[in-house]
Amino acid sequence: MNSLDHSSVPPLKVESVVKCFHQGKTAIAALDGINLTVETGELVAIMGASGSGKSTLLHAMTGLTDIDAGTVSVDGQDLAALSDYQLTKFRGLNIGLVFQAFNLIPSLSAEDNIRLPATEEPGLEERVDALLERLDMTDRRTHKPDALSGGEQQRIAIARALITNPAILLADEPTGSLDSVSGQEICRLLRELCTEQKRTIVIVTHEPHVAMWADRVVVLKDGKHLAEFAPSRHFDPQKIASQYQGVLNAAAGVMA
Ligand SMILES: Nc1ncnc2c1ncn2[C@@H]1O[C@H](COP(=O)(O)OP(=O)(O)O)[C@@H](O)[C@H]1O
Ligand SMILES: [Mg+2]
């Protein structure tokens, strides 16, 4: 298993993070003092309207974005303390990334896409086999991405994110390109990976259908951590939508 498994240190800690983008003379605070701690084996959904800072927060968690203030710690390691080389290495070992657009290499087979982030090492082939088996993709292993459905491509992208056995998986709108049935299958899979393997997972989404699988929903608005709630355990997206709307209404009421 992952060598970085100190149960007392949270796998992910975001403290007072600020990130501004400059457009001409105006600066937009995409992240405006965000605090968030994610515990081992927790599945957190980050919800918010378009432009609320969800993707920027996810990028900050990987160190892919330079932040202007605050700290991001992964397993107790302050990302800002690492050189670019160290950060790339650290990210490769500790964080798996999944995107809306799958980002598979079209010319490579499914199994070669999965191998891509891994270094040649003993046991790699067994890991590829085990992931294909776990994700129910063994009979698709030699297919190129264009011969796979969207849901299958996302499964391969998840396998690729897991090949280095990272403790943390971060997903930005992972169901955004999928029909609702495939989207739910991907959510169920992420939920199972979290529960079975104690992976720490953060999913950015604006869909209640996705957020309903989480242990905790964090709501962003204008780059701020507006509120959070525990989703109803009834797996009812309408209930989640009304919880989400309730949080937004309450905040609007306070500010009015
Ligand atoms: N590379 C960038 N350059 C300039 N502005 C950006 C950039 N990335 C994001 N922004 C701005 O930061 C804000 C938050 O964006 P983003 O994190 O992508 O939101 P979300 O993922 O919630 O839709 C938006 O106002 C967006 O326009
Ligand atoms: Mg986004």
TrEMBL record:
Signal peptide: none annotated. PROSITE patterns: ABC_TRANSPORTER_1, ABC_TRANSPORTER_2. Residues 12-247 form the ABC transporter domain. GO terms for molecular function: ATP binding. Keywords: ATP-binding, Nucleotide-binding, Transport. Pfam families: ABC_tran. CDD domains: ABC_MJ0796_LolCDE_FtsE (cd03255). InterPro entries: AAA+_ATPase, ABC_transporter-like_ATP-bd, ABC_transporter-like_CS, ABC_transpr_LolD-like, MacB-like_ATP-bd, P-loop_NTPase. PANTHER family: ABC TRANSPORTER ABCH.1, IMPORT ATP-BINDING PROTEIN. This is ABC transporter ATP-binding protein. It comes from Gimesia maris. The lineage of its organism: Bacteria, Pseudomonadati, Planctomycetota, Planctomycetia, Planctomycetales.
